[in-house]
Amino acid sequence: MTKPSYPIRTERLLLRPFTAGDQAVLYSWQSREDVMRYLYGGPKTPEESAESLARKLAVTWPEKEGEHLSLAVERDGVVIGETVLKWLHEEFRQGEIGYVLHPDHHGRGYATEASRAMLALGFDNLGLHRIVASCDAFNEPSWRVMERLGMRREAHFRHNEVFKGSWGEEFIYAILEDEWRAGDRWTGSGT
Ligand SMILES: CC(C)(COP(=O)(O)OP(=O)(O)OC[C@H]1O[C@@H](n2cnc3c(N)ncnc32)[C@H](O)[C@@H]1OP(=O)(O)O)[C@@H](O)C(=O)NCCC(=O)NCCS
User: Fold this and answer.
1) Fewest CB within 10 A of the end CB: N or C in the chain?
2) Quick one: 181 exposed, middle or buried, by C-beta within 10 A (0-12, 13-18, 19+)?
3) pTM to 2 decimals?
4) Does domain 8-182 fall into CATH 3.40.630.30?
């Protein structure tokens, strides 16, 4: 396991740990109904957003299973969203990725580009064997990111939970280390 050196640079983006100065920009998307539509919970209050930032500040690299690494995604010096890598299971080397962008920055491939870097961190730096991602089946922009990343749809759960008052539909996507190594993948700084 190798902790990367930050910032991580991709073709157009810079990924780095959140700082205390990111509170306003984090709140700018966490407070939005449209951003939270397919995420657990509703739009956050300033206090909830501050608690969320404190959790992000506490982890700059997952040191044990259950920890979530959340990196700020910058484009031209502006924080446009966050990208997440969760260490789900140490013995079985399982992880999960996630992403949220401010709507002003949708439709340009930034979530896909940032997630490619997170897959590299998961496989190269954390030594994972399998990385999953899940989303509401109606969250098409999200599962389209997973498909652009070369992840496979492994499951479509129907009515496995009640989500925001209605029966939920959930997609699970995954990619194995050897599948990822065999495909086109982002390589760059950060190792
Ligand atoms: C999920 C989310 C991050 C996807 O954002 P997105 O902008 O659609 O995804 P990307 O940044 O990868 O951009 C892809 C889009 O940009 C387009 N694009 C433009 N330039 C591109 C490039 N250089 N590379 C790749 N795609 C590019 C793609 O064609 C695609 O548009 P399309 O789906 O209409 O074909 C965004 O909808 C979001 O933040 N939602 C709210 C939070 C959320 O639901 N998160 C996921 C929880 S599971």
Assistant:
1) N
2) exposed
3) 0.95
4) yes
